[in-house]
Structures are given as structure tokens and as C-alpha cells.
Fold MerR family transcriptional regulator.
Amino acid sequence: MAYTMKEVAERTGASPHTLRFYEKEGVLPIPDRDANGVRIFNEHYIDCVDTVQALRSTGLPLAEIKQYVELYKSGEQTLPLRRTMLVVQKNKVEDQIARLIKTLEKLNYKLALVDAQESQFSKLP
Amino acid sequence: MAYTMKEVAERTGASPHTLRFYEKEGVLPIPDRDANGVRIFNEHYIDCVDTVQALRSTGLPLAEIKQYVELYKSGEQTLPLRRTMLVVQKNKVEDQIARLIKTLEKLNYKLALVDAQESQFSKLP
DNA sequence: TGGAGGGCTAGAGTTACTCTAACTTATTTT
DNA sequence: AAAATAAGTTAGAGTAACTCTAGCCCTCCA
């Protein structure tokens, strides 16, 4: 039930550096410490990291994630606002996916061009 | 056939700042200037910007884009290497799309949770 | 007991912008 | 004609989000 820094890093894919940095920036809770001042994490902490990572991977800045986390901490009356934030992010992610698909098409086009040029090149006398 | 900084910025979506920065970093060609030292751009320049943006949007660092551009400048013998770079980026983009779809699912899940809590909340006496 | 392994903090370095200051030039507006 | 507006120029500072370094502490196992 208790995890070390290294375990949390492994389970979330974030580096210990990044985890400490997120904590310092206030987007992650302040974990308990053992007698030597070493952080002790629990299952819930890993959920928090997952959420922050999901929000970050959509490009949401840490400052806004912090806002979201603070809304979460201040209870149910912030649910409508949090809902709005989630919907906004959802739309952004859909846009990003659309944009990446366009990029993929562009890359495929460039690959086709390169292949055409390559075969022409190899046909030279 | 000739464009100003502002027009290039509008047509590519990159800010003039960013365009000058890219030029300084060597990922864009050095454009001609008019008598007042003002940059004059052409159609081909816009293609270059598009390509850089497509590569950047896949997360390719400017340093590697610069390498690609230099390979391009040094002619046909670099085609196989450029082809490899494109394939690598294509795979990365596919990965990114897959990851974003997962994030989208997570967001939908969180939205469903929030909606459930919200309706529960509104049912309170 | 000593060395590997992990953790801690403070702070420097990196990437890719992004903005500011201070200035010139060109075009409108009064 | 003078003034305001808009666009351009450079050099360089600032920012976000890591990412790494230095220097130290603690513990565990051979």
C-alpha cells in the first residue's frame, strides 16, 4: 500500500525529478515522510499523478492544472466549473487529434515524394 | 508572389517573432530584403514554414529539423537518410494519436463521473 | 566497514518560444 | 505639414516545463 519515489516513477512513467517538481508547483498533494524525511506514497497519489499527466498531455499548463486541483479540493460546489474545464480540454484533445492526423497525411505525402525521387535516382545510368 | 512578414505569419499561423526565431536557428532559409532591410518572402518560403511546422507539431526538436533541412540542402544522396527520418516521425505521430485517444477516453470517464456526482448533488433535499 | 543504491535539497541549464525596448519607415488622418 | 498608426528591424530579457548537477544523508548487504 506504500510506495517509494522510484516505484511511483516507474508506475506513472514520470521521473522522480518531475514528481518533486509537480509537488513543488502545487499540482500534486504533499506526501507523508518517514523518519528520514523520505516521501511515502499511496495508491491515491498514483491516481493524482495519472490525472495530472492526462491533463498535461492535452497541453493544459501546470498553472491551470493547479487551479483545477484547487477547485477539486474545495468541494462539490465547484463541480460545474470543473465539468466545464473538462469539456474544454476534451475539445482541445479532439482538435489535437485532428491536427495530428493532418500531419500524418503530410508525412505520408512527403514519404511518397521521397520514394518517387529515390526510385528515379536508382534508375540513373 | 512576394509576401510581407505579416502575410506569412497569417498564412502559416506562426507569429513574426517565431518566424524570425526559426530563421535565426537555421531551420528556415534566409529571405531576401528590400532597400529598407525588410524581409521579402515568396511562395516557397511558406512551404518551408509549413514543413517545419509539420515536423515541430510531431515534437521533433528544432536541432533535428535543422539537420533535416541541411540534409535536404546537400542533395539527392541524402534521400535514404531523410526517408528514415520521416518514417521515424510517422511512427511517433501514430503513437501520439494513440496516446491522445487514450487521454480522450480518460476525460470522457472523468466527465461521466462528474455528471454522476452532479446529478446526485442536485437530488439533495 | 565500505560501497552500492536510493533519497533529499538548492539551484543551474535547456528548449522553444514569447515578449520588451528602442528604433526606422510607410501610410493615413487631421 | 504634423501627428498618429501600423508594420518592420535588432538585441536581449523572460517564461514554462522540465531536466540535470552537486553535494549531502541514510540504509542495507556482503
Remarks:
- Chain B touches chain A at residues 50-51, 54, 57-58, 76, 79-80, 82-83, 86-87, 89-90, 93-94, 96-97, 99-101, 103-104, 106-108, 110-111, 114-115, 117-118, 121 (CB under 8 Å).
- Residues 15, 17-18, 21, 25, 36-38, 56, 61-63 of chain B lie near DNA strand C (CB under 10 Å from a C1').
